[in-house]
Design goal:
With about 425 residues, the protein is an alpha/beta fold. The chain has two domains: about 5-20 and about 235-420, UDP-n-acetylglucosamine1-carboxyvinyl-transferase, Chain; about 20-230, UDP-n-acetylglucosamine1-carboxyvinyl-transferase, Chain (Alpha-beta prism), CATH 3.65.10.10. It is about 30% helix and about 25% strand. It has 14 helices and 24 strands. It has helices at about 20-30, 50-60, 85-90, 95-105, 125-130, 165-175, 190-205, 235-245, 265-270, 310-315, 335-340, 370-385, 395-400, 405-410, and strands spanning about 5, 15, 40, 65, 70-75, 80-85, 105-110, 135-140, 145, 160, 180-185, 205-210, 215-220, 230, 250-255, 275-280, 280-285, 295, 320-325, 345-350, 355, 365-370, 390, 415-420. The strands form six sheets. Strands 22-23-1-24 form a four-stranded mixed sheet. Strands 2-15-17-16 form a four-stranded mixed sheet. Strands 4-5-3-14 form a four-stranded mixed sheet, covered by helices on one side.
Length: about 425
């Protein structure tokens, strides 16, 4: 496995261009299975996760290729509706092909997903919704087998998610676009990535009302057509690089992004003492002096995103005072704490709460990335430590950060990838 060698102490400053959103690109790629003609998707980040999903879709017989940051797919000739464990096990988002296949073809066989070890993320809400739409669902030998009712089409229904689920909302709205009748969904996720998927589906000819609200109504159509669409900017990548400025008395300008998606994060940055300025497609963070301690409570959108919790914790580690971080989304998302402690952080965890007492500086150490977002918190912390640190298991960061070491180098980080 590759590693990063990082030599601090860096002042993180400069300009960085933000890639397309990983969390938006994956459902958009799955949605390319829905129309029976060509779809063109721009601004797709080059990541292990996007490459895996493209490979998965190609294995179904779809003519799909990636040229630079553009993916072109023609799904008129799909040979099978099968998603094997060998591919699905590497990332949870692979389950999103279930809704697209079931909606268009009336059947699917998809392995139960794998991915980051940040806690239980069951797919029961996806399956309950499909059953409410008339599908027969069985789980055998680790595979979900789904069959639409007689006639091969799902039936519109009223369904309320028991809990807010981004993947469940995305999966079900894809399936509902081609269902017979009208589907009314309650307690939907409202994340920007869900909105992006709904907007692309509308461009394909879907009829969806209530986009961006907890209640969405989807009127099924006979078929969808291909379209040309661009993935939104990655709000988590944006926030991650801006956090580096706060940790190092830096000055970071993120381009090709949007402040609209990051309001709760930017408010916390300002509360910590950063000067935040924004434009139509850029955000700049300037930090002078030590950050101030803040309290953070992760919540579903539009609250503070769980995917920024580790990065903000790293900033809090250097803050003046004591910060309290409460993780409400995933029960196992403090795995980065022992690694930050190896870098000199003062953190105590009690259940879903972490109390962080700020220290003057990080100290270098060998550490191990534990999940996708935690990996970036360790990279930024190591960049601020005085000396050499080695970060192991960086395949996590390759899953979600496009061209990460070159972008970090442009921001003044002394980083080198060590091939193992």
């Amino acid at each position: 496995m590759d590693k990063f060698k990082i030599i601090g102490k860096s002042r993180i400053a400069g300009e960085v261009s933000i890639s397309g959103s990983k969390n938006a690109a994956l459902p958009l790629l799955a949605a390319m299975l829905l129309p029976s003609d060509e779809t063109v998707l721009h601004n797709v980040p080059t990541l292990k996760d996007t490459d895996t999903l493209i490979k998965l879709i190609k294995g179904m017989g779809v003519d799909i290729k990636k040229e630079g940051n553009t993916v072109i797919a023609d799904a008129r000739h799909v040979a099978n509706y099968y998603a094997p464990y060998e591919l699905v096990r590497t990332m949870r988002a692979s389950i999103l092909v279930l809704g697209a296949l079931l909606g268009r073809f009336g059947e699917a066989e998809v392995s139960l997903p794998g991915g980051c070890s940040i806690g239980s993320r069951p797919v029961d809400q996806h399956l309950k919704a499909f059953e409410a739409m008339g599908a027969t669902i069985t789980v055998e030998n680790g595979y979900v087998k789904a069959q639409a009712p007689a006639g091969g089409r799902l039936i519109g229904c009223d369904f309320s998610f028991d809990m807010v689920t981004v993947g469940g909302t995305e999966n079900v709205i894809m399936a509902a676009t081609l269902a017979r009748g009208t589907t009314r969904l309650e307690n939907c996720a409202t994340e920007p990535e869900v909105v992006d998927l709904a907007n692309m589906l509308v461009k394909m000819g879907a009829k969806i009302d209530g986009i961006g609200t907890p209640t969405m109504t989807i009127e099924g159509v006979e078929q969808l057509h291909g379209c040309e669409y661009s993935v939104i900017a990655d709000r988590i990548e944006t926030g991650s690089y801006l956090a580096g400025a706060l940790m190092s008395e830096g000055d970071v300008l993120t381009k090709n992004t949007s402040a609209e998606f990051l309001h709760p994060v930017l408010k916390k940055f300002e509360a910590m003492g950063a000067t935040i300025t924004t434009g139509d497609d850029w955000i700049r963070a300037v930090m002078k002096g030590r950050p101030k301690a803040v309290d953070i409570r992760t919540q579903v959108h539009p609250g503070f995103p769980t995917d920024m919790q580790a990065q903000l914790m790293a900033v809090c580690c250097l803050a003046d005072g004591t910060s309290t971080i409460i993780e409400n989304i995933f029960e196992n998302r403090f795995m980065h704490v022992p690694e930050l402690q190896r870098l000199g952080a003062n953190i105590k965890v009690d259940g879903h709460t972490a109390v962080v007492v700020g220290v003057d500086s990080f100290t270098p150490a060998p550490v191990m990335a534990t999940d996708l977002r935690a990996s970036m918190s360790l990279v930024m912390a190591a960049a601020c430590a005085e000396g050499e640190s080695v970060i192991d298991r960086i395949y996590h960061i390759d899953r979600g950060y496009d061209d990460v070491e070159n972008k970090l180098k442009a921001l003044g980080v002394n980083i080198e990838r060590i091939k193992d």
